[in-house]
């Protein structure tokens, strides 16, 4: 499978209409991936859906799935999402007992392995193990809800991780998630993010295709400048 090039825009269906999911998936056909937020009301104080729903999204979506697991005991549950064909499965470092073993398992099944860190989690715990991952997700809000404000306090951590990856000649992708909009995406792109999750900025827009295009162009301009 050929992978979309940066900057990648991954709309989050947390802001989609849950009873019109098929129609909303069709509206983001020009995106790079669809970002699928799985929440268990335990790791985060919110609940979405599990494998049954994600399997239907996988069967319906015009673009590949980027699954973001905000669930406890990722070691146990994450492989199931790779098995149903998700292009990438990202679990939280805070929720995995054996992150390296889990990443290897996800890759073995055939999906890209991703690791996410919450705003207060240090990035340096990932330096030694970044080769085990295909993507690193730096959360730019506290995970759990869409529509929150972008935390620019997370940018130094992102920058340091990107620099470390360059030192190691790593090809890992850097994703940001939370509060990404036309006003904030440039900051994240300048810090080195190449993959941008946006929920409310995409599904809240009158013209979804134009919103995706606008975000991508703004990220492209900012990463060329930096
Ligand atoms: C939040 C989720 C996000 C959320 C982003 O915990 O992980 O993917 O949908 O929503 P916006 O873009 O509205 O902040
Ligand atoms: Zn997410």
Notable characteristics:
about 230 residues; alpha/beta; TIM Barrel; 8-stranded parallel beta sheet; 8 helices; binds D-xylitol-5-phosphate; binds zinc ion
CATH topology: TIM Barrel
* Share in β-strands: 15-25%
Kindly report the average pLDDT value.
98
Tally of DSSP β-strands:
8
Rg value? 16 Å
Classify the helix fraction into a percent range: 25-40%
Which series of helices and strands comes N to C?
A: EHEHEHEHEEHEHEHH
Just name the CATH architecture: Alpha-Beta Barrel
Give start-end ranges of low-pLDDT stretches: none
- The name of the CATH superfamily reads Aldolase class I
Secondary-structure-derived class:
alpha/beta
Bound molecules: D-xylitol-5-phosphate, zinc ion
CATH class: Alpha Beta
Gross morphology is globular
- Number of helices, where a helix is a run of at least 4 consecutive DSSP H or I residues: 8
Spatial strand sequence of the major β-sheet: 1-8-7-6-5-4-3-2
Distance between the termini: 30 Å
The number of distinct structural domains comes to: 1
